[in-house]
Amino acid sequence: MASNQLILFAAVLLSILAATSASVGNQCVPGWAIPHNPLQACRTYVVSQICGVGPRLYTWDMKRRCCRELSAIPAYCRCEALRILMDGVVTVEGVFEGGLQDIHMPHLQCPRQTQRNYAATLVAPQECSLTTIHGGPYCLSLVGSQVAV
């Protein structure tokens, strides 16, 4: 009798945990559906393509690694991961992660909005050809907006 109650209790507990993880799992926050400080390969790729900084010899490999990282993120969180790549995020522990900065050198300027506009197209067919939650060819949330960090 006690073992039947234990089995029933375990089944109820597992169903509660499954329901909780399903509702929490679809939130696009670092540590859940998005890794902490996501898309490191995309960071290198964006800076290389837009700012001309870094190795340009193996651009195809940087792009391939970026697309692989981006495809590992659920479609409904890809634009948020790219936003975190650009703007960063403060974690629950109060630590700032991510965020591409303006690159200013005497011979080079690489404005943040130019980087954001390019990052917004990483899901497009000519780049990684991935879907997003809105099904559009780019991440609308990154285009034409800029968050000061």
From TrEMBL:
<dbReference type="Pfam" id="PF00234">
    <property type="entry name" value="Tryp_alpha_amyl"/>
</dbReference>
<feature type="signal peptide">
    <location>
        <begin position="1"/>
        <end position="22"/>
    </location>
</feature>
<dbReference type="InterPro" id="IPR006106">
    <property type="entry name" value="Allergen/soft/tryp_amyl_inhib"/>
</dbReference>
<keyword id="KW-0732">Signal</keyword>
<dbReference type="GO" id="GO:0004867">
    <property type="term" value="F:serine-type endopeptidase inhibitor activity"/>
</dbReference>
<keyword id="KW-0964">Secreted</keyword>
<dbReference type="InterPro" id="IPR006105">
    <property type="entry name" value="Allergen/tryp_amyl_inhib_CS"/>
</dbReference>
<dbReference type="InterPro" id="IPR016140">
    <property type="entry name" value="Bifunc_inhib/LTP/seed_store"/>
</dbReference>
<protein>
    <recommendedName>
        <fullName>Bifunctional inhibitor/plant lipid transfer protein/seed storage helical domain-containing protein</fullName>
    </recommendedName>
</protein>
<dbReference type="GO" id="GO:0005576">
    <property type="term" value="C:extracellular region"/>
</dbReference>
<dbReference type="InterPro" id="IPR036312">
    <property type="entry name" value="Bifun_inhib/LTP/seed_sf"/>
</dbReference>
<feature type="domain" description="Bifunctional inhibitor/plant lipid transfer protein/seed storage helical">
    <location>
        <begin position="28"/>
        <end position="139"/>
    </location>
</feature>
<comment type="similarity">
    <text>Belongs to the protease inhibitor I6 (cereal trypsin/alpha-amylase inhibitor) family.</text>
</comment>
